[in-house]
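Handoff note, outgoing to incoming analyst
You'll be picking up this chain. Sequence as last confirmed:
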Amino acid sequence: MPATSTEPLVLGIETSCDETGVALVRGYDLLVDAVASSVDEHARFGGIIPEIASRAHLEAMVPTIERALATADVSLGDVDAIAVTAGPGLVGPLTVGASAAKSLALALGKPLYGVNHVIGHAVVDELVDGPFPERVMALVVSGGHSSLLMIDDTVDVTELGSTLDDAAGEAFDKVGRLLGLPYPGGPHIDRLAREGDPEAIRFPRGLTAAKDQAKHATDFSFSGLKTAVARWVEGRQDAGLEIPLPDVAASFAAAVADVLTAKTIAACQAHGVGTLVVGGGFSANSQLRDMAAKRCAEAGIDLRIPPIRYCTDNGAMIAALGSAVIRRGLPPSSLDIGVDSSMPLTTVLV
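Most recent structure output, in case you need it:
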């Protein structure tokens, strides 16, 4: 749907982890999406260091805002509302973003909207494929989340299931470390998997046994899979055998994609939902995309996956969600809102 000049210009700020994201959205139209990442500063530690991420956000915030405004050829005075990630995420980074957003809102006299990072990963697709239908199913998969959500009217969220232990992206990073791959492991496993045989090794599919279906039909578990990969690799090493990295990567990735897509398609069918949105950093995984496309086509479900540039954390998803809550007339947040590292996924706006 094309944007019009009467729709509010929303500045979105995202700082839940290691990316400083700033974007400007008018309606369903993305004007600019600027990102500054500190991922390289964390690589030598094998994971995100919150203190380093917080300091990087402090250094990058003003330059990234200025770059976004200049690219879109607008001024701060043109902004109609400020949207910011209020949670979930790391407390330090969230606090930096929230403080910047509050300062802008106060100085400009504009409304502030503290929104949910995870929901943003789904709603960003409205900038690509247009408005959601009345009800969609959203699978949000990242380093910290593997969540199955039913979304009505874009801003009314029901959490159907989540991970009971490791999230999909987290499992990829841990298996990547096990295989001696650089951090973050996801892209490296994905690259190797394209060269391997996904049926070479039959790794377990967590929470898919008949005994688990009654209680955990829409929940995920990847800890046991990660352990199974470790034991398989250790067994080969103890026997003095070579580790076929492409086959291990492909078989592991196939197991994750199989569980995610099978449970999600079943949930769509159980609730009569005809549109599936897949978002989050792990939605960049090629096997997940391919398997989701194949199974959705077979089930007659419309699949929406944003381009890879919108899968990792970015300001566009926060501005898009801010635009959605404004469009539906939800009240702005108070300037004294706090951040919530474990914000419930049913909380769209604070």
